[in-house]
Amino acid sequence: MGCAGSTPAKGDENTKKLQKPKPWKHTQQMTRAQLKQMRDEFWDTAPHYGGQKEIWDALRAAAEADLDLAQAIVDSAGIIIPNADMTLCYDERGAKYELPKYVLSEPTNLIRDS
């Protein structure tokens, strides 16, 4: 993986194959609508805390995609994933991007619509 001038060994050791995040539980039960609102608020404000907007856009697309497509997105954007669950990411310039679990998967205590 890499651009011209990058060393393959460095890229390979810092990039893992993506995996689904481990199951997690939110502090309070929430509905799907509440989860969507939390996610929207995170993605709307995340670029204001640093990093490149293009990388944030790629991370959002990857977070909302299936694993194979997500892997293709992060690879093509040059995103370095030291944690296979995408909770911690870096761009090629070394900027850090932290993603909360709630944007990557649903909590185990999500209230299902009936």
Automatic annotation (TrEMBL):
Positions of the DC-UbP/UBTD2 N-terminal domain: 15-113
Region Disordered, annotated ranges: 1-35
Entry-linked PANTHER family: UBIQUITIN DOMAIN CONTAINING 1 PROTEIN-RELATED (PTHR13609)
Name of protein: DC-UbP/UBTD2 N-terminal domain-containing protein
Organism name: Musa acuminata subsp. malaccensis
